[in-house]
Automatic annotation (TrEMBL):
Pfam assignment, any one: ABC2_membrane_4
Protein name listed in UniProt: ABC transporter permease
Keywords: Membrane, Transmembrane, Transmembrane helix
Top-rank taxon: Bacteria
Record organism: Streptomyces filamentosus (Streptomyces roseosporus)
Transmembrane segments: 34-55, 67-91, 112-140, 160-181, 188-207, 240-259
Higher taxonomy: Bacteria, Bacillati, Actinomycetota, Actinomycetes, Kitasatosporales
Segments forming a coiled coil: none
């Protein structure tokens, strides 16, 4: 009589929650993560408080949107979040850590998706909290000026959420560039040249179609998302969100294709 024994299940299984947990552990255990995130928060909060404390009614910034005025520091914070996104992918290639990650997850693509999800959730949560706190703190100085506003005013909450979403999507675009180019300096250079400088150069061309197309570039779309009132020369928040999502999505898709086809 033959006795059959049940097949023992492996002690560890590769599951999406475990991959997400691994990527979250890597993100929060790196010193560079804390440096870049704290720097981004300090920039938004510090500039917001400075703008609020030094603002006087009727000055040169009186026509600036209230949310934009309070969150001027987001433009500087974006630089730190872009670097964080690039380090999260290209940084692993520079250290060789990517070999261990892909050995543990042979399917490869779940690693990239997990990085994107962990990055997006972390950055959006932190920057939304920072945006809300900064706006409230700035209004403590602006309450008796022509820039006085509240969370219940039309477009304010949407702009605060939009600002956090724009910073998150810009970071995801950078994360995708890092995974695509596999080089920290290369990805930073590509972001600066392709995302920040190229629209300025194209804007010098005397063609209406080019001027219209530039409105859908990442930096221009991001600016439209963070304003409570329409900004002249920009698209509305809906198309801006769609455009920025597509930029990040296409970059991540290209990175996924490269990751699937190329050796580490």
């Amino acid at each position: 009589m033959t006795t059959t024994h049940p097949t023992a299940s492996p002690p560890y299984r590769i599951t999406p929650p475990r991959i997400l947990h691994a990527e979250w552990h890597k993100l929060r255990s790196l010193r560079s993560t804390w440096i870049t995130v704290v720097s981004a928060v300090v920039m938004v909060l510090g500039v917001g408080l400075t703008m609020g404390a030094t603002y006087t009614s009727g000055g040169g910034d009186s026509d600036v949107d209230t949310v934009v005025l309070s969150l001027y520091g987001s433009m500087l914070a974006q630089i730190f979040l872009v670097v964080l996104g690039i380090l999260m992918t290209a940084g692993e290639y520079s250290t060789g850590m990517i070999r261990s990650s892909l050995t543990a997850v042979p399917a490869r693509l779940p690693v990239l998706w997990a990085k994107a999800v962990v990055f997006a959730a972390t950055v959006f949560t932190v920057m939304l909290t920072t945006s809300v706190v900064t706006f409230a703190a700035a209004q403590a100085f602006l309450h008796d000026t022509d820039q006085a506003a509240s969370f219940t005013d039309p477009g304010v909450l949407r702009a605060l959420v939009g600002n956090a979403g724009a910073l998150t999507l810009m970071g995801l675009l950078a994360l995708g560039l890092g995974a695509l180019l596999r080089s920290v300096p290369g990805a930073i250079g590509a972001f600066i040249g392709g995302v920040m400088i190229m629209p300025e150069i194209l804007g010098m061309l005397p063609y209406d179609v080019v001027e219209r197309a530039i409105m859908y570039f990442p930096t221009q779309a991001a600016g439209a998302l963070g304003s409570a009132t329409p900004i002249p020369g920009t698209i509305s928040p809906g198309p801006a969100l769609l455009a920025l999502t597509l930029w990040a999505g296409v970059t991540l898709a290209a990175a996924a294709l490269t990751l699937k086809r190329r050796d580490v």
